[in-house]
Amino acid sequence: MARTVPPLSDSKCEAAKPRDKDYKLFDGQGLFLLVKPSGVKTWRFKFIRPDGREGLATFGNYPALGLKAARERRAEALALLVMGRDPIDCAKQAKVEASNARNHTFKALALEWHATNARKWSVGHAHNVMRRLETHLFPSLGARPVSDLKARDLLTPLKAVEKRDSLDLASRLRQYQDGIMRYAVQHGHIESNPARDLVGATATGKSKRRPALPFDQIPDLLGRLEIYKGRPLTRLAVHLSLLLFIRSSELRFARWPEIDLKRGVWVIPGERATIEGVKYSHRGAKMATPHMVPLSRQAVAMLKQIQQITGHLDLVFAGDHYHWKPMSENTVNKALSLMGYDTKTELCGHGFRAMACSALTESKLWSKDAVEHQMSHQERNKVRGAYTHLTEHMEERRLMMQWWADYLDANRKQHITPYDFAHLLAEGADNVVSILRV
Fold this sequence. Notes:
With 438 residues, the protein is α+β, with helices and mostly antiparallel strands. The chain is built from 17 helices and seven strands. The radius of gyration is 36 Å and the shape is rod-shaped.
């Protein structure tokens, strides 16, 4: 029969004095306090491991770890043994997991995820993603181990952004969270991705349609352009934007070496050299892939006029005060406003794209693929290579851009619909339709 050990008391533990050699004060069920000659008192737990070997675990020093706490540790160890688990192995595993938790925080893995993806992102996009992470996600999530994060934790910063009515930003942040947590799953830090449960958790805003003029108001627009009294380069910028219907940043950051007036083509690069102090000046064509814009006769003539103003500079649309900086992002819309248009409800610069797309489609002349390529909407197939799309449907696109320029000219005095210009007036008309029907 096992000898009964009287349990320890706090007073007995406290009163234990050091001796010449180590000695033990037993509390029962394998727990004892080891008193060393140095005066250090350490809690130990002696047990039989599941494989039959003797085991000796160290719980901590007294009085930092009191008698009650030492008994709780013993109870936990005994419970593990009942389940066939080794307390020492479990303690080691817990230390490893704690270390991993400290090292595998949301911020640490977010930085790894960002570095991996930055190889395929543009410099500007990578910078924007990092700025959003630092501003909106790292303050509340950065120091937390990814293994501790639940869907409700990830939702908190999204809701904070949603309250400011920044719905698009909230959606982007959720996508970042999903990517980061998926990265954590792929590298074995967590078993499942809690960000997947956040789809639809924040409100989405209605897509805003950019205001564009109906076709019957094109004559009035062209008339207002002719009498515009502002800066000549601004008037030309507005008119060229209407002719080529390219995006605002593609126009503003244009450089003369991109344009070949002899061949009648403008190749907008995927990314441009950054202009110091100018936000987003690295931006080129959408999706960071080059975009080819065939130039109509009218566009070439207009660019030659612009060349007389800024041809000695690098920037096509240089600013009014500093020639090394581009015109303001508000220049086109401000000019339209001065012409009498409400840029929120009637017409804005981006609306030229909608007008051109609608006219080209309504004419029934051009294939959908040609229109999509010229609008730079076409999804890029990376397998085919980054530049394959440049010349797709190019001959049709050349005719299409010339037709659009001719259609605008035909509307200078009176309105004509795109369909009528393409079909009813084809016979003997001075437009490219006759070429298409030869």
